[in-house]
């Protein structure tokens, strides 16, 4: 059978793509992309004329079956998402599971992912961490998840949309206490901004400056005391102007 390649693509800056991903995207029979128009821009930038098909949340059942049949028939398929690593808060996991069940080889091509990029620049401990993806939307599930996180000792990484950032920061403050935290916005893009401070400082900042763009929140783990956790973690943010490119 063919091979399913999981290809990491940029999370903003188009230069963040590996030579190997570029070669594989050239060579495969088919690229399955979350949003074909979005991926077409990337391919055009690198002059890659490959056949594209869509594979996203809403067609993943039917399209997945289709792709698996093509793989079984010997076609090589590259899976890409709109940003970063497919399968991380993006479609891909199911396809991998099904491919493995059917004995189709799956090869990962590493590259950018917003969670790791945010973690390493946050200044918070990367020794042990947990990735929460997007917190559940439903109030009950959300409350349950937040209460689990209240005594989580590892650094916590959360994805969030700009219009929900304030609500999430408020809930984190209520449930976890005023921890050291970092909001990493628009990583690798023109308006990249990494804001570090206590959760309450971040709240204050984003209440005055409406959150825009894509965010990763990184929050310090539980250290045994709710009250003093953010002491000594004053605002150490770099604004886009101060950053060296
Ligand atoms: N597969 C992607 C990855 O490997 O990081 C994640 C896809 S998920 C649908 C999109 C979320 O990732 C955004 O809501 C945001 O939380 C985060 N994200 C993606 N690109 C980002 C960037 N350039 N800066 C900050 N956060 C980003």
UniProtKB/TrEMBL annotation:
Compartment annotation: Cytoplasm
GO CC aspect terms: cytoplasm
Annotated Tetrapyrrole methylase domain residues: 4-202
Keyword Ligase belongs to the record: no
Broad class of the protein's primary localization: cytoplasm
GO molecular function, one term: rRNA (cytosine-2'-O-)-methyltransferase activity
Reactions the enzyme catalyzes: cytidine(1402) in 16S rRNA + S-adenosyl-L-methionine = 2'-O-methylcytidine(1402) in 16S rRNA + S-adenosyl-L-homocysteine + H(+)
Family assignment from sequence similarity: Belongs to the methyltransferase superfamily. RsmI family.
Name this protein carries in UniProt: Ribosomal RNA small subunit methyltransferase I
Gene name, Swiss-Prot/TrEMBL: rsmI
């Amino acid at each position: 059978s063919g091979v399913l390649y999981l290809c990491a693509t940029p999370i903003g800056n188009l230069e963040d793509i590996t030579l190997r991903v570029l070669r594989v995207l050239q060579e495969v029979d088919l690229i399955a992309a979350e949003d074909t128009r979005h991926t077409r821009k990337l391919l055009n930038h690198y002059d890659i004329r490959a056949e594209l098909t869509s594979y996203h949340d809403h067609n993943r059942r039917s399209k997945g079956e289709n792709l698996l049949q093509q793989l079984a028939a010997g076609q090589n398929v590259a899976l890409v998402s709109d940003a970063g690593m497919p399968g991380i808060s993006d479609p891909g996991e199911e396809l991998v599971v099904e491919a493995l069940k059917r004995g189709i080889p799956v090869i990962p091509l590493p590259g950018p992912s917003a969670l790791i990029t945010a973690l390493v620049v946050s200044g918070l401990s990367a020794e042990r961490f947990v990735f929460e993806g997007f917190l559940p939307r439903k109030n009950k599930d959300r409350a349950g998840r937040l209460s689990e996180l209240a005594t989580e000792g590892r650094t916590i990484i959360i994805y969030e949309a700009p219009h929900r950032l304030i609500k999430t920061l408020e809930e984190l403050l209520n449930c976890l206490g005023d921890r050291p935290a970092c909001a990493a916005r628009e990583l690798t893009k023109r308006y990249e901004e990494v804001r570090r401070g206590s959760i309450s400082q971040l709240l204050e900042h984003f209440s005055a400056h409406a959150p825009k763009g894509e965010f990763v929140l990184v929050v310090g783990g539980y250290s045994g005391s709710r009250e003093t956790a953010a002491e000594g973690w004053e605002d150490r943010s770099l604004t886009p102007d101060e950053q060296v490119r």
